[in-house]
UniProtKB/TrEMBL annotation:
Residues 24-308 form the Protein kinase domain. It comes from the Bacteria. This is Serine/threonine protein kinase. Pfam families: Pkinase. The lineage of its organism: Bacteria, Bacillati, Bacillota, Bacilli, Bacillales.
Length: 308
């Protein structure tokens, strides 16, 4: 999805906050979507992400969620939101913007492509933990999809774009069809824990079988779509098959909350057939560990020899 508004900030241009006076120097575009454009900006020595939008109502609701999360003092949300202001463009038009923590990393799909699919179980577990934290603050993420999950070193996960975040119990504010429980006739669009877990399961499928998922959604009549069709993809995918029971549970609302889902996922990771954290240790780290062990052994040998 792309924005319809015309803001195009070049490298080096400066965004001045009209009310609070902060100045941000633009480095580059990080991404764009339906609600605005996100730029990497610098303020003093600090790197931040600045989201500028055309519609202050859309942006305001994201800001409300971020404020409420910061208020709940959840570790992940601490200091995520920095500043909220308006900016007057050279042509006189005013745009609302906010600045937030710059999440270094790439979308989960790009990360797995670059560093290997063996990172998937760990990144997914971290994502489930993020969802559990968000749920504990009374919010449902709503628009969970590949583009909104950023992954950085060692599978560390951060959610971006809180435009779909909805207070638990309300109607989900923003969603993407293919990840939407209602689209697959598996439940309402009411914001509950299971709604996010359904999207999470679709995200797992999207990461492994994007083409098949796309074709499936195109080929079925709306009234015929179901979790069973999604499970058809899972059962024909070698990487997803070990997760079959877990994914079925997530697609059919079988987990009470994201914490329970994360625990079940963690247990799966520890089973033999599925790679777990130590087996996704990068090569250079394995090498470092081996060298350290040898050095330790040599030191001990010399120590003992000199003592005798
Ligand atoms: N804090 C951040 N740090 C780094 N990159 C970010 C950050 N926030 C957003 N991005 C990048 O910018 C892209 C667009 O941002 P965002 O999803 O918030 O826009 P949107 O208009 O709400 O999109 P959508 O149409 O999906 O709702 C993201 O997919 C991500 O790549």
């Amino acid at each position: 999805m792309t924005t319809s508004f015309k803001v195009d900030l070049r490298r080096g241009s400066v965004v001045n906050g009209k009310w609070r006076g902060a100045k941000y120097r633009v480095e580059r575009l990080l991404g764009e979507g339906a609600n605005g454009k996100v730029y990497l900006v610098q303020r003093g020595a600090e790197w931040l992400a600045l989201k500028v939008g055309a519609d202050s109502i859309d942006l305001q609701s994201e800001i409300n969620v971020l404020r409420s999360l910061a208020g709940a003092k959840k570790r992940s949300a601490e200091a995520f939101l920095y500043d909220v202001d308006d900016w007057r463009a050279p042509d006189g038009t005013e745009y609302p913007f906010y600045t937030m923590k710059y999440v270094r990393g790439t979308t989960v799909a790009a990360y797995l492509q670059r560093f290997g699919r063996e990172w998937f179980p760990l990144a997914a577990l971290n994502l489930l933990k993020k969802l559990a934290e968000l749920h504990a603050s009374g919010w449902i993420f709503g628009d969970l999809k590949v583009e909104n999950v950023m992954v950085s070193d060692y599978g560390y996960v951060e959610l971006v774009d809180f435009g779909g975040a909805t207070a638990a119990g309300k109607s989900v504010r923003q969603f993407t069809e293919i990840y939407d429980r209602g689209y697959w006739n598996e439940g309402s669009r009411s914001a509950d824990y299971q709604y996010d877990l359904f999207s999470f399961a679709v995200l797992c499928i999207q990461l492994h079988e994007p083409k098949r998922l796309h074709e499936l959604s195109r080929s079925l009549l709306p009234q015929n779509r179901s979790a069973e069709d999604l499970m058809g993809i899972v059962d024909h995918c070698a990487a997803l098959k070990p997760l079959s029971a877990w994914l079925r549970r997530a697609l059919t609302g079988g987990f009470r909350h994201a914490g329970e889902a994360a625990e079940a996922w963690r247990q799966l990771m520890h089973r033999k057939r599925y790679p777990h954290r130590s087996s996704v240790m990068p090569g250079w780290l394995k090498g470092l560990a081996a060298v350290s062990s040898v050095l330790l052994a040599v030191s001990l040998y010399w120590l003992l020899r000199n003592m005798m």
